[in-house]
Amino acid sequence: MSRxxxxxxxxxxxxxxxxxxTSAFSADFAKLGKGADISTICGEKPxxxxxxDGYGGNTWRKIAFAEMKDEASKCPNIKRTVYSDAGGDAQxxxxxxxxxxxxxxxxxxxxxxxGDAALPAYRAAMQAGAVVVPYNAKLTGTPGVDYTAxxxxxxxxxxxxxxxxxxxxxxxxxxxxxxxFPGAATSQAIMEGIRDGIKDYPDxxxxxxxxxxxxxxxxxxxxxxxxxxxxYPQIDVVMSDYGVISLAGIKxxxxxxxxxxxxxxxxxxxxxxxKYLADKAAGKxxxxxxxxxxxxxxxxxxRQGLAAFEGTKLDETTNLVPLxxxxxxxxxxxxxxxxxxxxxxxxxxxxxxxxxxAIR
Length: 360
Hints:
This protein is an alpha/beta fold. The protein contains 10 helices and 14 strands.
């Protein structure tokens, strides 16, 4: 069936955020999305910002950098922004931090891909006078000593929310969680939350107490899921921390003629959402929940770093959770645009044009 029957014209990507619902997360956490107004904390000192990824290169990371630049553009005193990708190399990651500090960048924003292992590099950058803001993963270090601030998604809460949704709606069956690289801090924390949350639902069973490594690569994910299908006669719920690998897993099930298990996804994208709508329209729908607006975390990170550098007041928590974007049990459907790239994320705050430029 053609997607045209249920597609809407290209939308402002940021407008999709308005359709995102609240979730069952505790009120102790702030929800990702727009957040505070950065114009109130810009200050006057000229500032430069370096953003460093441990595992960059995928579309989510490109969108996140574009979100950071968009947020920075609201403060005319932010004069320079630069990006680097360590390509999964922890040594290069630390070297990139040291290099940007040596070049005189004022604010160092780093995706905390390597967790606490990078604390010595953050601490050294702090001691050299830089503002250091590792984000996304929750670290055990001390703010003001090991880093300036650590805005993070409460990934254990994400895992608990996935377990809650599956336990409440799917109710029983076998569960697997597809994560990223070996040792990825975010995947580890979500897995911890899933293990904890699933205890409340005795009819749900984890087939593996650890996350299944996919390297956040769709080709690897499809092979891995094919192996899971061969190993386990029944899989009822597949959880993941990236929509691209969820879609690869869905294809693996359909290629062998099996029904698609229920899906819970952190960070969906256009292709999996179009696939969901297409299968639903064809009478082959599957149960689906996504947690999104995740790329907006870099805006929170920039605001923390800028306020610290400028000495301006920012009243915004660093404890963050994503928003529920899709929930098949609530008839809460995603956007789909056949003219957009497959891995476009319409839950970012970028406009359609900005999003297209970011992911070309």
